[in-house]
Automatic annotation (TrEMBL):
It catalyses: L-glutamate + NH4(+) + ATP = L-glutamine + ADP + phosphate + H(+). Belongs to the glutamine synthetase family. GO terms for cellular component: chloroplast. It comes from Lithospermum erythrorhizon (Purple gromwell). PROSITE patterns: GLNA_1, GLNA_ATP, GS_BETA_GRASP, GS_CATALYTIC. Residues 163-416 form the GS catalytic domain. GO terms for molecular function: ATP binding; glutamine synthetase activity. Its EC number is 6.3.1.2. Homooctamer. This is Glutamine synthetase. Residues 79-159 form the GS beta-grasp domain.
Length: 416
């Protein structure tokens, strides 16, 4: 007996007639599929999965769906905590589960844990233990109940941050007195691309071919323009349930590409929320049978890349006379352009070409309402004389701890 998690029709890859994949499924094989539906629309748990179960020869049906939806709250005080951390590439998310004796409200109530760093590229085999420090808690939309997701950072047994732990340095910056007093706000626009599983080609694109040119896809609607809306919507709701400060979502310029926005978030919270949102997206695409990529230029040629535009302001920028503070901040950013670019994501040179709504990676520029600049200032900010700036340089695979920390450091702490 086997069981299949069934995505919506939009998540299923359309295969050309006569292909090996298509011919391997026959009407006879699909006949035993039975859809298990909730009786009378009742919802017993906040986490629900639609499961197709294959019926075996003796007529029994796989009951995995019932266990997935099982609410254990009436029977035990214990909860499941999913410890999440960033792996050795600096962009991969890892996680594992443990039982906690009772519900918790703050990360300090959770125990530290460890994992095999030699298996994630973060420690040698002869000294492989890496320690997880719980730092932020979110509700678990997959398990529901009192179960939680725990964002952690990583340390040696001696208590030193390991090299891939970028949160520790960001936390130092955001705890500085001058930075705290400026109450830095961030609004991060995370772009991502959905790929078909076996061919690693964008969702909705003909295998080995191309759709029509860009134009109708951005914020578009329709089966020939919007590919992956179910995933975007599922992710949106999962973020709201988890307590992530998600503020919106939209289809992007390249078909199969989407964006969600998180913020405004203060200080280190911005990085925690983006990383948790990325984890949720990985889990949802896993269930949908779709591959998520944060590559800044997934398809070469006349197609938009994927960025992670970062909107930023300080208390001084948001108050009267703030536009002058913004100009000073932009001046500082221009002087540290190379340092920022080197920390803004792997492969960003393939995206920042001066085309497709980007500035050249080799030069710094800024302008009002100009999406071809390194830094964009909105019309409202210019008109009101206060507001925020948008750093359009970060790639989709940037580390939000690095980018937010560097912006605060360069504009508040660093003096040319």
């Amino acid at each position: 007996m086997a069981q299949i998690l069934a995505p919506s029709a939009q998540w299923q890859m359309r295969l050309p007639k006569g292909s090996i994949e298509a011919s391997s499924f026959t009407p006879k094989m699909w006949k035993p599929l039975v859809l298990k539906q909730n009786k009378k629309g009742a919802i017993r748990s906040s986490a629900k999965f639609r499961v197709f179960a294959l019926q075996s020869s003796d007529g029994t049906i796989n009951r995995v769906e019932q266990l997935l939806n099982l609410d254990v709250t009436p029977y035990t005080d214990k909860i499941i905590a999913e410890y999440i951390w960033i792996g050795g590439t600096g962009i991969d998310v890892r996680s594992k589960s443990r039982t906690i004796s009772k519900p918790v409200e703050h990360p300090s109530e959770l125990p530290k844990w460890n994992y095999d760093g030699s298996s994630t590229g973060q420690a040698p085999g002869e000294d492989s233990e890496v320690i997880l420090y719980p730092q932020a808690i979110f509700k678990d939309p997959f398990r529901g109940g009192n179960n939680i997701l725990v964002i952690c950072d990583t340390y040696t047994p001696a208590g030193e941050p390991i090299p891939t732990n970028k949160r520790a340095r960001a936390a130092e910056i955001f705890s500085h007195t001058k930075v705290v007093s400026e109450v830095p706000w961030f609004g991060i626009e995370q772009e991502y691309t959905l790929l078909q599983t076996n061919v690693k080609w964008p969702l909705g694109w003909p295998v080995g071919g191309y759709p029509g040119p860009q134009g109708p896809y951005y914020c578009g609607a329709g089966a020939d323009k919007s590919f992956g809306r179910d995933i975007s919507d599922a992710h949106y709701k999962a973020c709201l349930y988890a307590g992530i400060n998600i503020s919106g979502t939209n289809g992007e310029v390249m078909p199969g590409q989407w964006e969600f926005q998180v913020g405004p978030s203060v200080g280190i919270e911005a990085g925690d929320h983006i990383w948790c949102a990325r984890y949720l997206l990985e889990r949802i695409t896993e269930q949908a049978g779709v591959v998520l990529t944060l590559d800044p230029k997934p398809i070469e040629g006349d197609w938009n890349g994927a960025g992670c535009h970062t909107n930023y302001s300080t208390k001084s920028m948001r108050e009267d006379g703030g536009f002058e503070v913004i100009k000073k901040a932009i001046h500082n950013l221009s002087l540290r352009h190379k340092e920022h670019i080197s920390a803004y994501g792997e492969g960003n040179e393939r995206r920042l070409t001066g085309k497709h709504e980007t500035a050249s990676i080799d030069s710094f520029s800024w302008g009002v309402a100009n999406r071809g600049c390194s830094i964009r200032v909105g019309r409202e900010t210019e008109k009101n004389g206060k507001g925020y700036l948008e750093d359009r340089r970060p790639a989709s695979n940037m580390d939000p701890y690095v980018v937010t920390g560097l912006l605060a450091e360069t504009t508040i702490l660093w003096e040319p």
